[in-house]
Amino acid sequence: MQTQTRSSAVAVTMLMLALSAAGCGGGDGGGPEDQFLGRWFYEAPDSNTLGSTGFTLTCTDPIFSQVFPASAMTPFLIFSSMNFEHGELTDLVDTAGNCNILSYDVKGNSATVPNPDPNTTPPDAPACLFQFNLRDTNGYPISSFAVISPSSSWTFKLLPDKTAGGARRAQLVGSATAHLLADDGSTTGAISNPDCTYAGQDTFFRLTQP
C-alpha cells in the first residue's frame, strides 16, 4: 500500500513538472529570439550629417523620380530605431513605431520577415506604413506615405563584435518595395507607378533590454 502511494505521488509530481515545463514554452522566453529583445538605435554612417543612413529610396515613376531619382539613390531614413518584443504568432514584433508594423521569425543569429504575414486576415504579404512629408512647388508640406514591403533578403542579423561600451550590435540589411502615395489635391492622390525601391544597410546598437 505504501509502495502504491509513493508511486502515485511520484506520478503526480512528474505530471506537475511536465505541465510546468510546458507552460514555459512558446513566446514566453528562453528561446533564440531573446537575444534580439530590447530597443536598438541605428549608428549614422556619417556622424556629421543629420539623418544619414545606408538605406536609399530610388524611383523611376515620373512624379516621384523628381524627388528620389534612381540615378542619385537618395538616402532615406525610416528605421532610426527598432524595439523587439515577443510576438503572438511570430517570434518577434518591431513596436518602435517608425514603420507600423513588421513581424520577424528567428533562425540562429538572424531575424527575417515571414511571408505571408500570419497576423493579417487572410494572411497577406508583409508590409508596414511610414508617414513623411514632401513639399510642393511653393514649399508647402504634402502628406505622404510609403508602404514598405520587404523582400526575402530583408534581415536583422546580430553581429559578433560590440561597440566600445560593450553594447550588442546588429545590422539591418536588404531591399523592399516602396509603394508611395502623396496628397496632391486630386481625388486619388499621386501614387507611384511603378513602385520605388528601398534598399541598403544600417548598423544598430542595443540600448535597453526588457
Mind explaining what this structure looks like?
This protein has 210 residues and is mainly beta. It has two domains: 1-30; 32-208. It is 10% helix and 41% strand. It is built from one helix and 13 strands, in the order H-E-E-E-E-E-E-E-E-E-E-E-E-E. It has one helix at residues 2-23, and strands at 38-43, 55-58, 74-75, 81-86, 92-94, 102-107, 110-112, 128-135, 141-150, 155-162, 168-182, 190-191, 196-208. Strands 1-4-5-6-7-10-11-13 form an eight-stranded antiparallel barrel. A hairpin with a 7-residue loop joins strand 11 (168-182) and strand 12. It is globular and about 50 Å long.
How would you summarize this macromolecular structure in one to three sentences?
The chain is mainly beta and 210 residues long. The protein has one helix spanning 2-23; strands at residues 38-43, 55-58, 74-75, 81-86, 92-94, 102-107, 110-112, 128-135, 141-150, 155-162, 168-182, 190-191, 196-208. The protein starts with a helix and ends with a strand.
